[in-house]
Amino acid sequence: MNLPSKVLEEAVEQLAMLPGVGKRSALRYCLHLLQQDEVTVRDLSESILRLKTHLHHCRVCHNVSDTEVCPICSSDKRQRGLICVVENVQDVMAVENTQQYRGLYHVLGGVISPIDGVGPSDLAITSLIERVQKGNPAHVEEVILALPTTMEGDTTNYYIHKLLQPLGVTVTTLARGVAVGDSLEYADEITLGRSIQHRIPFESQ
Amino acid sequence: MNLPSKVLEEAVEQLAMLPGVGKRSALRYCLHLLQQDEVTVRDLSESILRLKTHLHHCRVCHNVSDTEVCPICSSDKRQRGLICVVENVQDVMAVENTQQYRGLYHVLGGVISPIDGVGPSDLAITSLIERVQKGNPAHVEEVILALPTTMEGDTTNYYIHKLLQPLGVTVTTLARGVAVGDSLEYADEITLGRSIQHRIPFESQ
Q1: Which CATH class name applies to B6-53?
Q2: Subunit contact A7:B50, Cβ cutoff 8 A
Q3: What is the CATH number of domain A79-173?
Q4: Is some CB atom of chain B closer than 8 A to the CB atom of A74?
Q5: Span B80-173 CATH architecture
Q6: Beta bridge partner(s), residue B84
Q7: What is the ipTM of this complex?
Q8: Is the pTM of this model over 0.90?
């Protein structure tokens, strides 16, 4: 792309580093910003920088937070004996949006993936084990493994399960089965097979 | 969306103001930025702000420029008697990318559109007339109207043409016809009709 200005070119290049943003979109964003007043652009610029300077990761669960310990970890309205292990911050939001879970979280920051060079030491697994051992912030009764249902997720599930087993804590995983609203016809065989295998009493559905 | 942090929420809201960016994409950008180091995020933040603080509009043609007069207007390698009138900065880039035009530009900043409340006084039309009258930056021989082929573009063409006529300058518009690579079957009737009406000698194709 042949841009008429170095300043514009730089901004386009920087914005094009965002996931799913190409140079053409980045240019569109820049030209849009050019038409805004300076206060608006300054607000955007500052709020982006604040992501790095003012946003923390919770010391306990590693979720993003404005405070050192996040509101979920410090709330006394949550079931503090329950930890839901998720891959990333988005997954915390996904589970929170169900309004079905009142326990705490633990954000791993990824899943074990040798192909991508992600090993157990790159993830917040040690701090999870420590939480269970030390009962931080409270005695842990159950760890729910809510990782993606991929090979990497399964590997990570297995790895964590092995470490947690000697600690005498209940370890569960999410139910896998036919999605609500799906017809059986379109469910894949493995999912359908598991949903038969792990069928539940009719009354508890 | 239920975000775990005010800082994150603000950044998502600011980014979601960009054209075509929803809250979900904005969140994805934010979480991506969270994983980058501070220098990268600071660079992005600063280059966005520089769009407002360091980028100018050329005093002559209103194209974006790092300098008061843009490189095109100040170049002596361009045909300075030729002005191509376009709607916006993107259109300058589009024409430049053809490498077929060596004249100057004039960026109107929009087209006349009563529905959107855009009148002639909102556009850089007066400065265009002045350029032709005063010969800025050089004596103007021809003005090429390269506005969109919409009703608004046609209205603006007509308006500018009426103002330029008394000044004795040649006014032309872009050829309208079948696009290169198109089969006639799929060209719309108006375009095909015009391309017959304005047919050109075979040798000059």
Answers
A1: mainly alpha
A2: yes
A3: 3.40.1360.10
A4: no
A5: 3-Layer(aba) Sandwich (3.40)
A6: B105, B144
A7: 0.78
A8: no
